Amino acid sequence: MSSDSKPRVPLVILGAGVTGLTIAYIAACDSDVDFDITIIARDMPGDWHSQAWASPFAGASWSPNPLGATDERVRRWEQITFDRLWDMAPSGLVKRAPAKVLGETDGLLSTIWWQDLVRDFKLLSESEVPAPCKVGAAFTTVCINPFEYLPWLRSELESRGVVFRRQYIRSLDEVKPLVGKTGLLVNATSLGSRSLIGVEDTAMYPIRGQSIIVERTGLEEFVTVRSGGGLSELPTSITPRPGLTQMNTASLNGTYQVGSWDTSLDMSAAKGIFERCSVIAPCLKEGTKILMHTVALRPDRKGGPRVEAERISLPLVRSGSLAPNLGGNAEQPQDITVIHAYGMGATGYQRSWGVAIEVLSLLKENM
Fold first, then answer.
1. Please, are residues 235 and 254 in contact by the beta-carbon 8 Å criterion?
2. Which one of 37, 52, 192, 205 has the lowest number of neighbouring Cβ atoms within 10 Å?
3. What is the predicted pLDDT for the residue at 195?
4. For residue 265, how many other CB atoms are within 10 A of its CB?
5. 91 CA to centre of own chain
């Protein structure tokens, strides 16, 4: 279909994290619809010191998670994303890395739903598993450096005419003039969906993650230690990062504190992270340069991720006139379609491309 004959559809995306950016990329590259895309967000790629969003501070690798064992849709998202990231490795934005998942109990072996998703999977023999772990599996995974990957996505989008608008949106009523009568809205606001008036999803909750970004040669292997089949409050992992601009960096994780809103840096926790990671990689004990400490809130959701369409009438029904009154044309009645895409927890990167493809399908169904 030629560009002249493609329908032109306004598309507003709330949120410039990895999910929102990837959705924008898939929509911008679509061959059937000419989406006129505007991304609205409080935080943008380049805001590396804002703790109000999670994407810059993610481990950003593919790592097994329990939900994939029971949710076929999540498994599909992750397979699509893994394959896409694998194919991106020659660009330098993605690193193919040898990987190990180690377990302190046999529970790890009961949840290996992902052995056909990754590359080069094999179970480790007892002699290959370092103490105090008892079991393990090896494979090849993919790793990303958010400080390079997010700016790349933004650059690609801007080259395709996508507009970035920095704005804090408090209510869906505020985006009504931008969506217009024929446009569509994607809500990729993650934890912001708790307080976004018109969504107010109280199923959203934070998982506090603290990490250390280091520079050290010799960290070429992704390693994560699990206390059982799932994640403990003090998981340990080392994620090597690709480096187009800075070589030999890695993320040392971490914490997994469900329900914690605390974004303050805990140096005693950092000490524990470094010590646990040094057991896995003794080379950390000498010659390691600490680049930064990070604390971020992973946006998880009770009941699992939300990726679905919803028809919403604007202006919002005001109970006791408590919703902000914007006046003017914002008060004219109108229904809009909202595609929700949030609640990925600590797995936003490893589901991003699969989620984006599903969102594109929902957008087309609701044009």
1. yes
2. 52
3. 95
4. 12
5. 20
Strand partners, 213: 251, 292
Beta bridge partners of 139: 99
Measured in degrees and rounded to the nearest 5, phi and psi for residue 288 equal -90, 130
Nearest in space to 12 (alpha carbons), one of 307, 337, 306, 331: 337
Give the contacts of 46 (CB within 8 A, at least 6 positions apart): 151, 154
Q: Give dist(CA 81, CA 11) in Å, integer.
A: 23
Helix or strand or coil: residue 157? helix
Tokens matching residue 213:
């970004």
pTM of the model: 0.95
- pLDDT given at position 228: 56
Whole-number Å distance between alpha carbons of 112 and 145: 26
Asked if 141 and 61 touch (Cβ cutoff 8 Å), the reply is: yes
CB 353 within 8 Å of CB 81: yes
Q: Which helix (H) or strand (E) holds 276?
A: helix 267-280
Contact (CB, 8 A) for 351 and 68: no
Specify the amino acid at residue 228: G
pLDDT recorded at residue 86: 98
Q: What distance in Å separates the CA atoms of residue 339 and residue 311, rounded to the nearest whole number?
A: 9
**Cα–Cα distances in angstroms (integers) from residue 350 to residues 31, 49, 79, 82, in the given order:** 25, 23, 9, 7
Is there a contact between 299 and 342 (Cβ–Cβ < 8 Å)? Answer: yes
Closest by Cα among 193, 199, 162, 169 to 336:
199
Amino acid 315 reads P
For residues 40 and 194, what is the distance between their CA atoms, to the nearest angstrom?
17
Instruction: List average pLDDT for each run of 10 residues in the chain, which is 367 residues long.
Output: 75 98 98 97 95 94 92 97 98 97 83 94 94 92 98 98 97 94 96 96 97 96 79 81 93 94 97 94 96 96 97 77 63 90 97 98 97
Q: How far apart are the first and last CA of the chain?
A: 17
Q: How many angstroms from the chain centroid is the CA of residue 85?
A: 14
Q: Which residue has the tokens 């598993």?
A: 129
Task: Output the CA torsion sign for 188, 190, 196, 199.
Answer: positive
The reported pLDDT for the residue numbered 101 is 95
